[in-house]
Structures are given as C-alpha cells and as structure tokens.
Amino acid sequence: MDIYRAHVLVCGGTGCSSSGSATLIERFEQKIAENGLEKEVKVIRTGCFGLCEAGPVVIVYPDGTFYSRVKPENVDEIVTEHLLKGRKVEHLVYTDHATKEQNAEKALEDINFYKHQMRIALRNCGVIDPENIDEYLAMDGYRALEKALTSMTREEVIDEVLKSGLRGRGGAGFPTGKKWQFAYNSVSDQKFVACNADEGDPGAFMDRSILEGDPHAVIEAMAIAGYAIGASIGYIYVRAEYPIAVKRLQVAIGQAEEYGLLGDNILGTGFNFHLYIRLGAGAFVCGEETALMHSIEGKRGEPTTRPPFPAVKGLFEKPTMLNNVETYANIAQIILKGADWYSSIGTEKSKGTKVFALGGKINNTGLVEVPMGTTLRTVIYEVGGGCPNGKKFKAVQTGGPSGGCLPESLLDTPVDYDNLIAAGSMMGSGGMIVMDEDNCMVDIARFYLEFIVDESCGKCTPCRVGTKRMLEILNRIVEGKGEEGDIEKLEELATTIKSTALCGLGQTAPNPVLSTLRFFRDEYEAHIKEKRCPAHHCQKLLQYVITDKCRGCTACARVCPAGAITGEVKQQHVIDPKKCLKCGACMEKCRFGAIIKI
Amino acid sequence: MDDERAKFAELEKLIADHKDQPGALMPVLQGAQAIFGCVSEDVQKVIAEGLGVTLAEVYGVATFYAQFSLHPKGKYLVNVCLGTACYVKGSQSILDKLCKLLNVPVGGTTPDGLFTVEATRCLGACGLAPVMMINGRVYGRLTPDAVPAIIDEYRNGAGENA
Q1: What is the secondary structure of chain B as a DSSP string?
Q2: Chain B residue at shortest CA distance from A448
Q3: CATH code of the region B76-161
Q4: Residue-range domains of chain A with CATH
Q5: Which of A169, A237, A261, B13 has the fewest Cβ atoms within 10 Å of its own Cβ atom?
Q6: Mutate which of A11, A18, A444 to test chain B, going by most B C-beta atoms within 10 A?
C-alpha cells in the first residue's frame, strides 16, 4: 500500500455535491499532478462531514485543517500554498458563525460544531471513501460480523443488542433487541431481514448520509441481524429520491459479495446471506413498516393492522425483522465494543447517541450526532450556533409530521425518547427544524397538515377525511377567515384522529397542531380574533405600508400589478390597502427599505 | 413508430427479466417509467399481461406512488422542495416565482414541452435550503431572483452541461 504524506478529503455528500464538490476533486487531482505531488498527496471523496452549511468542505490531513465554501478557483492556492509549501490558506479556513473566529490552528475536532458531538452511527462518514471496501475494512469493518459468526451464538448476539439498550432510531423507539428476539422466536422455513431507508420525514437526512458515507456499516449490521434471527435474505428499501445512496449501496453490495462477506458460506462458516435493494416510488406512508413491506411485495403501500406483527407474519407472509438505517449503523460497534460500553452512553432509558438533522433558521445547518440526554439548548446554540441574522428563536420542531414544536421555555429539556414525548413532541427520525420570530406557528401547523393530507394513503377514514377537515380549518384561519370555535373543533378532530387512525402516521398526524396549540395558542387567537399574524407571515393578514424612508423614486409604483401605489416623484408614496394584492413586489423592489409589513 | 416499437421491445425484456422475482410489479413499473417517461394505459396493459396480474392491480399501484406518472412530463422536471427546512426558509416563494415565470400551475407542463414544475417533499439537501432540483441537479441557497437565470440556462440548452 502506498503511503502518502497528506490526504485531501473532499465531501461527496448530497449537500456538497450540489455545491460543486465533484469539480473540486477534478481540480485538486489536476493541480496536484501539475505540481508533481501525486505520489505524496492523495485526494479522497468521502461521505458527508455533517456541516453542510459550510459546503463544499475540504479537510487536509494530517493537520485536520478545515476549509469551507471552497470554490474551484481556490484549489490552486490550497495546492501551491498548503500542500506544496506547508502554509495554511488562512482566508479559506472555516469561520465559526457564532464566535466569528477563524483559526487555522484549530483542527476539526475542536470546532464548536464538532466539539459536543460523539459519532458512533456516523463514525465513518466523512472519514472514508464509501466506494472502497478496503477503507471500511481498515476501520474495523466486518470485524463485528466475523466476531458474531465465529465466536458468538445467535442467542448471544441478540442478548448483546438487548443489553445495549438500543432503541429503534426510526421514530417510535421500540427496543431493537426485543424486535430481534421476536423474529428469532418465530419458526419458519424462511425469514427476512429488512432495512427501512425510506426516509420520508421532511427535514431529516441522516439515513441518506449514512448510506452515502458508510454503506458497509448497514450491510454488515444486516448480515449480523440475519445470522441472529435466522434469515438468509435481506431487503433494503430506499427512496428513489436518493440516487447517490442507491448507487453507493449497489457498489458496496457488489464489493462485499466479491470479498465473500455476503452470499453463500460467509467467512467459511456456512452462513448464507443475500441482500437486495428495492426502490421506493415516492410515498411517505411507506415509512410505516407494514406499508413498506407491501411495497416490497409490489403492492400499493398501504398499512395493515397489527397484530400480526411483522416478526410473526411480514414480508411475503414470512417472519420479518425491520430496522431503520441509523439503528443498523450502531450494531457493529455494539457487537465489537460490547453492550456495557454502549449502555454507558445516554440516559437511563435512552442509550447511545442520536443523529439530528439541524435545519431551518440556524447557523450551522447539517448533521450532528450527540449522546442522548444532551439538551436542546446545547444542540441548537453550542453545536448549531443559534439563529442567523440576530433573529429571535421561537421554536424547534422535532419528529417531523408526527412530532411537535417546542418553545424557548423547554430548551433545557434533555433530548431522549421519553422526555420529548413528555414535552409534547417526539424523537421521530431526528429532524430538528429551528424557527425564528418570522415564522408563523399557525402556518407551520398548516404546512404539516397539508403534507399529511397529500401523503395520506386513504385507507382509513380518520386520516383521509379527518386531516382534510383540519387543513380546511387551518387554511381559513391563515386567510383571516377564522371563526370562534375553530380551535375547539381542531382539538376535537385531533383527539378523534389520534385514537382511531389505522397506523402510526395517522395517529400522530394531529401532533403538529396539538403542540402548536399548546405552546403558541396566542398566535392562533391573534389570527382568529384580531385577524392579525404576529409573525407578519400570513399574506392575507398583512398590510404593506410605506414609511418616511421613501425617496419617491417611483420604482414601487411601477412594479405594482394592481396600481395600488400613488405619489409624486421625490415625494413619499402611499399604498391603497383596498387595491393592494399583498404580493410583496414593491417591498422586493424598494432599494431604501422604506416598505414594511405590519 | 420504430422508436416506439423499440421501447416496447425494451419493456418486454424488462418484464421477462423480472417475471419470476417476488414483488416484480414495482421494479417493472419503475423501469417502464424510465423507458417511456410515463406509464400510459397501453404500457400498463402490457405489464399486466406480461406479469399475469390484473390491469386494475397495475393501475392501483401506478396511481398510488408519486413517482409514476400517467401522462408524459416535460423535458426538464423542475422539483421545488417543500420539505420543512426549505419551507421555513421560504421555498414557497421560489415555487410561486417559477409558476409565474413559466405560466403553469404546480404539476403543469409548459406548452413547448420543456418544463414541468412540481413540488416535492424533502430532497435531503436541507443544509442548502431552499433548494430545487432540475433533472437530478440540485440548486441550493436559492432566492426568487435567482430563478429566471437558471431557467434560461435550460431554455438555451446550456443547463444540461452546467
């Protein structure tokens, strides 16, 4: 193996890819060759580093210098200065949003964003080349599979997972070991292992990053699961919207088969395990386990009632054990390092770490992995760097369409399954969307309901009809047509849907409305009673006004499609609220910031 | 017509390849969507016969999933992300701008067959919000003002290589 004195890691995750990291890699390779460094410096395309906000991201090892928002024209400078002369390119080094600190001496691990993190599921993301199995092997890859197959009985493997306290990372938090045990206990000629990679929660992309950055971690864990429960076939159900993840999985499965780590007689132990990819086709409900299995069977992805549970009668009527991507990504480490190590991390009832996708109005958007029990405040302010542009924090949404919005007063809640539920939200798959003072909570609730109405499979009435009625009420409220009694109607519908819908998605669908009603009821009341949107967001409830900053340039009057703006040249203009369509074109056009929304 | 015949031949091969595999309908429909750009009634009939399932079952599956379309779409599929992270950062205004610019409703195709505008739920590029995707290429950190220039690139045929 060749030894290089420096490695240039370029992020090839979705975020950085779309900000042009592929061009960077080409440019680096070209410039390195031009300078005759190809035997000394190696360029590697890795998975996601997590800090998507700073993308495209480049890290130079051995020093761990963290360059952010690198443009193709910056590559020459990094090569000639840093790689050739050993001088870091200070002005390209990552700047911490919160502290405004730009310190070239600070390695990756010391940056605020990474300091509070503990990476278990994401351990190899951004570290190895996901399309090269040798790099995974060098990081103890497939050693857990070897350990399980050669020195542990099936019962011991299940026991280890059970003792680790690992709970399903897909949302509900069911103990993983118990799931394995149920499937193990089922007697059948054929059993299946399945992986839920139909990451449908808007705002969550950890499964995508794991598949793109470390696909072998999931493959290895599925093989271990297959051994433990007695299954020889596995299916990974991936969203079709994730083309890079699908490609890397295909490459990884091919390599694992070639190395004899998948297929027949794995590692000479007589254990057979074959893995197949199935693509989703754009249906949120397929994240529900029974719906997902129907979809793999080639049917409409509609859920069915449980029992029978999949562990008894699942895919093709056979016992099936289904876990989510992030859950699997923890397995190999649990087998290698032991249940005691894993259960020493986290809180009493939620062990280990959790990956969160930080998004919305937050400085450091990206993926973070923190020990369970870390407070929301630490995640949002220490890791995430708080809200940008000095805006005031209003709420954080966790759990996607099944979760809720939590206000400032609950920021000191330690994040784990039980605490989030007690606070009126839920863990979900780990989306964490931050909202600031400009976001209207009624509109956010309406947004989620619209999502649910779109995605409801239509099988059961509470979800199909009930959520639609709720959406109609919310639409009226944001349009200024809210009536007395609307809030009570929403609450009644929500309670009914919660207790009568067929599957988990329907039962949790009203949560965004219930949680915003609980913590932001005043905003609902302002919309209904005063026909006012406190966040100045809802178009129909706004009034555009021209202040005395107006210079009379007439730009707004010319752009107004309704002819609602009048005034003499060089005189302050006025908007006729009766004619105003509230399109906002004038405000966009004004160069003096003279038009405001009230 | 030859072109059409070649496509149907490809479909027959696709069906033959998947016929004996459990749960074949989904992969076959996905393949058909890729070959034809949509799964029309004629295509569905061929699939139903080939796999030995009823047309009703094929239609049921084809209409259940958002990925399958019964009608042809434009050459460029513009998907604006309305996932939470993008929505919070104003992706609705990107979508509005596009619809106004191309003069089509959401889901509509321009008369010249070039663009179809759709809203999608989360492309998983939340770090770049708000984003849109044109034929698989992601455009991030968008503002409504940036939209016309991007569309023009595709109109002039330059976008594909960009």
Answers
A1: -HHHHHHHHHHHHHHHHHTTSTT-HHHHHHHHHHHHSS--HHHHHHHHHHHT--HHHHHHHHHHSTT--SS---SEEEEEE-SHHHHHTTHHHHHHHHHHHHT--TT-B-TTS-EEEEEES--S-GGG-S-EEETTEEE-S--GGGHHHHHHHHHTT-GGG-
A2: B84
A3: 3.40.30.10
A4: 6-108 (3.40.30.10), 133-343 (3.40.50.11540), 353-436 (3.10.20.600), 441-529 (1.20.1440.230), 543-597 (3.30.70.20)
A5: B13
A6: A18
